Amino acid sequence: MNAGFERMKRRRRPFLISGPCVIEGLDLCLGMAEALARLADKLDIAIVFKASFDKANRTSAASFRGPGLERGLRILESVKRESGLPVLTDVHEAGHCAEVAEVVDFLQTPAFLARQTDLIEAAAATGRPVNLKKAQFMAPADMLAVVDKARMASQRAGHGAGSLAVCERGTAFGYGNLVVDMRSLDELRATGCPVIFDATHSVQLPGALGSCSGGQRRHVPTLARAAVAVGVDGLFLECHPDPDRALSDGPNSLALADVGPLMRVLVEIDAARRAERKELTDA
Fold it and tell me: Which residues form the DAHP synthetase I/KDSA domain (predicted)?
């Protein structure tokens, strides 16, 4: 399970990045990771547990940000040890990357910081796989420059081109709304990186609730099915045992109990897509 994005891609079925938006506590994270580990075994898919130790881009200063770097890394370390799942977390500051990389298996650069050169380079220089999220204000082609920054930093640090993925999470459509252009998933292939679709943040309604963002989680399955039909290497689905009580991004998070049924459908869609492509290739 402790592998780069390319190795997970070669398993011939979509991998999953999933977990709560923010670390709310050890017990909640452990319980969720154990449930996801059972799902990984049942569906024979690679699953990476995701949770953030600090959500530095919250709408309001009064919003819960997480336990912070030190305690957050201890919790992620326990989750990794107890569940057997690799773990992924966000990094918001270049100075945090090396310390975070000592604990986690994957780093992620937030969408709002997609063009922050120092952060991108510091994350890639750790040698850990990095999920590069496309910003809401960027076109797919803009990610070519982001990937180039990461690759050059990885090479300078002696890690070769590095293990990188690019992640689509919707594009700003007016104020407080996002849309997903499915053509983006094809266009992101030009980066040469595995393509991940973030189905939960794509239904976010930024700032819609005044002091926090809203969301339309009912649309998550629709967008996820469409993205898998187009062809993606991985899915990003934030979840929570009780999304209406989640401390961050609850309105656009799936219920933990709904992740398994949705992934079963997505695995079947992916298999049908691959079979159709093989038939067309062999014809």
Answer: 13-268
Whether 243 contacts 251, CB under 8 Å: yes
Structure tokens belonging to residue 61: 């200063």
Residue 228: the pLDDT is: 98
Q: What is the pLDDT of residues 223-271, one digit of tens each?
A: 999 999 999 999 999 999 999 999 998 999 999 999 999 999 999 999 9
Q: Which of the pair, 160 or 60, is modelled with greater confidence? A: 160
At position 39, the amino acid (one-letter code) is L
Which are the contacts of 191, defined by CB distance < 8 A and separation ≥ 6? 143, 144, 147, 164, 166
pTM confidence score: 0.94
The amino acid sitting at 221 is P
Q: Judge whether 178 and 171 are in contact, CB under 8 Å.
A: yes
Which structural domains are found in the chain, ordered by start? 11-282 (3.20.20.70)
